[in-house]
């Protein structure tokens, strides 16, 4: 996997060249606030002294997914993970505007539904365009960090493209607690990279606008396992092996059959048995108490942390 035609001999971004053994911070201007303040995307490039694969570590594609930003930030500032072989391109926060507005979107548009983008399009479209044009052309593979949205907490998991054997192998190397194949979504970052023969694995952990230490550490450990596998970091760096990942084969959302106040009874990531009560939905007057049960044995991949639910709302993402 990635044994020839490495892309890191000369990495070029925005006309700046980074040779073997060099590191550089490149700021990509994207737009200005109405006040005239320039908004730039910082891109950190760490090019090792020896040829090897080039990996993109990307956080904050959705602006409210602060867990992903913190995860990448911690790896960025930890000097013990110096790159000796290959190249690591780090984008801690892509969607600056969404981050400032505590929003998933960028000016009302989802960047992750705007690829391949356009140089003359909306801000989200231009962001997608420059990401592909300036950065992805240098990359052998990418790890895209995300969290759950809308008060849904994702248990640490890796998603890969089922049609991509290299993505599957990378997911196994990452060794998150859970892994599963996920269909490509039109105009998404992963879909556009797949069209360009670049495998992308997506790490999901925690929920939007929340920091969750376990999800952060699982993401860091998984990333380091990949970097160490390709001998990109020094062999003396200690990386937790972790338990063997559980490969989820089928998934479905368990949805509310009634409206009311939702109270969960199981932990995220738990293995549950058929018939087990996962939670209860109660009306506000204490007259009803509707149990939510597991229809078969499996794992809780994600759960809804919002207590007020309507009929049809997603409660648990269930995998078996």
What is the compact description of this entry?
Keywords: Hydrolase, Metal-binding, Zinc. The chain is α+β, with helices and mostly antiparallel strands and 320 residues long.
Structural class: alpha+beta
Counting DSSP E segments of at least 2 residues, the number of strands comes to 19
Give the biggest sheet. 13 strands, mixed
Poorly predicted parts: none
Radius of gyration: 21 Å
Count of alpha/pi helices? 6
- What is the percentage of strand-forming residues? 35-45%
User: Termini distance?
Assistant: 29 Å
The outline comes out as globular
Instruction: Write down the secondary-structure element order.
Output: EEEEEHEHHEEHEHEHEEEEEEEEE
Question: What is the mean pLDDT?
Answer: 93
Provide the helix percentage.
10-25%
Plain-language structure description:
- Its cofactor is Zn(2+).
- InterPro entries: AstE_AspA_cat, N-alpha-Ac-DABA-like, N-alpha-Ac-DABA_deacetylase.
- With 320 residues, the protein is of the alpha+beta class.
- It has six helices and 19 strands.
- The chain has helices at 66-77, 96-100, 123-135, 165-174, 189-195, 213-229; strands at residues 10-13, 16-19, 23-32, 38-47, 50-58, 85-91, 141-148, 152-160, 178-181, 200-207, 246-247, 251-255, 260-264, 271-272, 277-282, 289-293, 298-304, 308-309, 314-319.
- Strand 1 (10-13) and strand 2 form a beta hairpin.
- Helix 1 (66-77) packs across helix 6.
- The model has no long low-confidence stretch (mean pLDDT 93).
């Amino acid at each position: 996997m990635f044994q020839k035609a490495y892309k890191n001999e000369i990495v070029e971004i925005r006309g700046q060249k980074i040779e073997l053994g060099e590191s550089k911070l490149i700021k990509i201007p994207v737009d200005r606030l109405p006040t005239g303040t320039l908004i730039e995307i910082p891109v950190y490039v760490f090019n090792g002294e020896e040829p090897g694969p080039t990996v993109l570590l990307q956080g904050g594609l959705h602006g409210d997914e602060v867990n992903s930003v913190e995860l990448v930030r911690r790896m960025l500032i930890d000097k013990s993970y110096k790159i000796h072989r290959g190249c690591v391109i780090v984008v801690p926060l892509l969607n600056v505007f969404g981050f400032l507005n505590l929003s998933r979107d960028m000016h009302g548009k989802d960047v992750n539904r705007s690829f391949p983008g356009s140089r003359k399009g909306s801000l989200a479209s231009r962001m997608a365009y420059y990401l592909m044009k300036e950065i992805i052309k240098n990359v052998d593979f990418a790890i895209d960090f995300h969290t759950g949205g809308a008060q849904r907490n994702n248990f640490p998991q890796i998603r890969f493209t089922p049609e991509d054997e290299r993505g599957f192998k990378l997911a196994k190397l990452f060794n998150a607690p859970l892994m599963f194949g996920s269909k490509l979504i039109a105009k998404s970052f992963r879909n556009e990279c797949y069209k360009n023969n670049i495998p992308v694995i997506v790490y999901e952990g925690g929920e939007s606008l929340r920091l969750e230490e376990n999800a952060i550490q699982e993401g860091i450990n998984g990333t380091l396992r990949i970097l160490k596998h390709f001998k990109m970091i020094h062999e003396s760096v200690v990386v937790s092996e972790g338990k063997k990942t559980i490969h989820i084969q089928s998934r479905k959302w368990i949805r509310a059959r009634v409206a009311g106040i939702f109270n969960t009874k199981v932990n995220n990531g738990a293995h549950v048995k058929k018939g087990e009560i996962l939670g209860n939905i109660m009306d506000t007057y204490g007259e009803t108490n509707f149990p939510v049960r597991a229809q078969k044995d499996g794992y809780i991949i994600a759960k809804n942390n919002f207590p007020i639910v309507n009929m049809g709302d997603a409660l648990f993402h269930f995998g078996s």
